[in-house]
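Researcher: I'd like a structural prediction for the single chain below. Treat it as a standalone chain; there are no partners to consider.
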Amino acid sequence: MARLAITETLSIDEAELGERFVLSSGPGGQNVNKVSTAVELRFDARGSPSLPDGVKARLIRLAGSRMTQEGVIVISAQRFRSQPRNREDAVERLFALIRAAVDPPKRRRATRPTLGSKERRLESKGVRSGTKAMRRRPETE
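Model: Treating it as a single chain, here is the predicted structure.
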């Protein structure tokens, strides 16, 4: 089987992708009711032997509602009129999702607010407080 390159170091087997063709609701004119041009691409992310564990975990988190309970990512493509273009679109969207999961997110380094930012915050709070104080009924003595 052919291997599909996602990055220079990561590739998946073509057999890991499953596709189903369904009627499209997108562009296609009269063909839209006759020809199954929409593509439903399926990729078993949880069971894929090609993906390292870290990439799998990040991919599962990134996929969100596109992932089923079984860990299968389902991507639906119906943007174009032709089946081959929709197939390419679905595969490219899957690869973009996997590429986003390849590099781990940068760790957040804790920082402290600067003196200037503290002063600006307190100044704006004072201005806001003054605006609200002007709206109140005057106190009678």
